[in-house]
Amino acid sequence: MRVVLKECLWESMGDELLVLFDPREAITLGDPDGQVAALFAELRREPRTPAELARSLGVSEADIAGALDVLDSLSLLEYEEHRWLGDPELDRRHFSNLAFFGTFSGLDRPRAEYVRRLRAAHVLVLGVGGGGSSLVQSLAGLGVGRLTLVDRDDVEPRNFARQFLYRHADIGRSKVDRAAEWVREYDPSIEVRAVDRWITGPDDLKDLLDGVDLIAGGLDGDPEAHLWVNEAAVRAGVPIVVGGMTRSQVMYYSVDPGKSACVRCDWENRAGLEDASAEGFFERNRAAITVTNTLIGPLAMQIGSLVAYEALRYLTGFEPPVAAGCFVKLDLRAGLQPERQPFATTPDCPVCGS
Predict the structure, then answer these.
(1) Is residue 328 left, alpha or beta, with left meaning phi > 0 and alpha meaning psi from -120 to 50?
(2) Can you give 19-54 as a three-state secondary structure string?
(3) Which of 175, 165, 120, 164 is nearest to 143 (CA)?
(4) Residue 250 has what DSSP assignment?
(5) What is the pLDDT, as a whole number, of residue 288?
(6) The pTM is what?
(7) Looking at domain 120-342, which of 3.40.50.720, 3.30.70.590, 3.40.190.80, 3.40.640.10 is its CATH number?
(8) pLDDT tens-digit readout, 294-305
(9) Domain coordinates of the chain in residue numbers?
(10) The domain 3-82: what is its CATH number?
(11) If we measure between CA atoms, which residue out of 294, 295, 300 comes closest to residue 131?
(12) Is 146 strand, coil or helix?
């Protein structure tokens, strides 16, 4: 197959070649005889096979193979045939997605394969309100091939501060039906199912998990709703990514069944502690407290995008999940600086037995 050099700049500086692919960092390669610069020039001229490169540069194929291995380890190469999906319409539709994955691609990590994984994925989205409405839009933009959307609320005027899937004419309509309609209008190739249902326990999710690759979103209402989702997901072996907000913190977390601690681990551990902190006091008295939803548009979009990006890690494997078995909290009073808080683990956890 033909090797192509990714978009980068280079310049010879004495016995070294300075290469710039990511503006944050420069790569310095030893090049006393100018052969590396010549290789770059050949690759920039047009995609070439290793044999063609060896002939053009007058070196052995073994030398070319070694040089290509080094450049590939620096994420500077890919195969020309792996840059596109092979369908001009799909290539146009996913142009930006393909460009994004080009940052992480390599000779054995085709950028087009990452997009194919998204197009083959099935995500169960719980809640299409606050962060969920932005999450739906992000997943659709990524081209996730199949979405099952679950919610029970209807559209109300107070939703318009943060839920941009909906319009004034939608007031009184089922949110999940309108969200599914939006997806179909946005990209008819995405298969979408709307489920207008209250979730009152893990059993309410069982019939929705067949063929699902990931659960994303979050449920409002009952303080233990996150435990229901966790239990259903772990027992089915399906990763979950959940996001939300307290009065002054945006947060998200994920659970990778069989690999990370689960939400119940953390809950079991904290439930047994005499916690005198504000957080502990709140958790012990949550059922007696009515908290006004302070989520506004920019923060709803932040939650939706963070959840979607963590979902992207699970669905494609372009990099490992960063929130598996931990809370990632962004404090509004500290400029949304993120802080990781690992789940407390419980060896005899009744859900995952971590």
Answers:
(1) beta
(2) EECCCCCEEEEECCCCHHHHHHHHHHHCCECHHHHH
(3) 120
(4) E
(5) 53
(6) 0.92
(7) 3.40.50.720
(8) 889 999 999 999
(9) 3-82, 120-342
(10) 3.90.930.70
(11) 300
(12) strand
